Amino acid sequence: MSTPDHGKSGQPVTMRDVAKAAGVSVATVSHVVNDKPGARIGDEARRRVQEVVAELGYRPNALAKTLSRGSSRFIGLVADAIATTPFAGQIIHGAQDEAWKHGFVLLVANTEGNAEVEDDAIAMMLEHQVRGILYSTWYHHEITVPEALRQTDAVLVDCFASGSGLPAIVPDEERGGRTATEELIAAGHRRIAFLNTITPSPAQTGRLAGYRAALEAAQIPSDDSLVFLAEPQQEGGYAATADVLASGATAVFCHNDRVAMGLYDGLRENGLRIPDDVAVIGFDNQDVIAAHLRPPLSTVALPHYELGAAGVRMLLGLEIPVETLRVECPPILRHSV
């Protein structure tokens, strides 16, 4: 691959530089410099781009020249927190495996939530004429779609944007909450507490709905006095121990594995054994926690690998197109139930 041309400042001239100077989108610049057949570009916009290209001395690099008649064999993935969460790597792994299976290579950009870095990353991917872009966040929540993302095919992974028209691949939070509660019911428990998070999110509402649905299906009366709000960290589970013990619950569904870890500490300090005295199930399957607690924690997995893989399939038209694809959260049974 040749290196980018350099402008008067000595810095590489990018397609984004041309777009900014000409007052057009990166996609428009790409269509003009690659003379893309069928592109609908006004004469005035085309003239401005050509003038700026000449002024800045921009020329497509060798890779771009080979792509002048269509998209590349690249798929982009823009994520906001690859380095700071154990889950992003699983999304990337799933997307990479699925992309490779279909003859594509994944281009990955970590933005750390920086909007300017995000715009630059998307512009770079557009410049490389990616087949499309997966836009992923480190936890499931609603987002505002970056404008640059609308210049190519895009799929949202572990996030969603209501009314955006972009397909979203997300965990089935409600089904996961129901699965966790059903495991406790199957073990013979009827007085089951739920330590929910204080943070508003699809996980907060979905897992609570699943908990209640499982109780209703088992004809166990739903008791709001058994639902507690806790900080979504170890300290939250520990602090909730007194409420759990006062409730008389024989089993606890924890919003995540970190909360369960704190509850483990609190129960142990009170001389109680898991699962003999109180059964505990978590959520996330954060392996560094769940598999190494004593006893190892039963939990429900967030399906990050499958989110990434399904995102690629959706982008390539291999999934039935839907506005929201909810992926099952499977139980991971160990020894705490």
From TrEMBL:
Keywords, comma-separated and alphabetical: DNA-binding, Repressor, Transcription, Transcription regulation
One Pfam family matching this protein: LacI
A single GO molecular function term of this UniProt record: transcription cis-regulatory region binding
Domain of life: Bacteria
Keyword Glycoprotein: no
Family matches, as InterPro entries: HTH_LacI (IPR000843), Lambda_DNA-bd_dom_sf (IPR010982), Peripla_BP/Lac1_sug-bd_dom (IPR001761), Peripla_BP_I (IPR028082)
SMART domains with a match to the protein in the record: HTH_LACI
Location of the HTH lacI-type domain: 13-69
CDD domains: HTH_LacI, PBP1_sucrose_transcription_regulator
PANTHER family reported for this sequence: HTH-TYPE TRANSCRIPTIONAL REPRESSOR PURR-RELATED, LACI-RELATED TRANSCRIPTIONAL REPRESSOR
Protein name: Transcriptional regulator, LacI family
Species of provenance: Paramicrobacterium humi
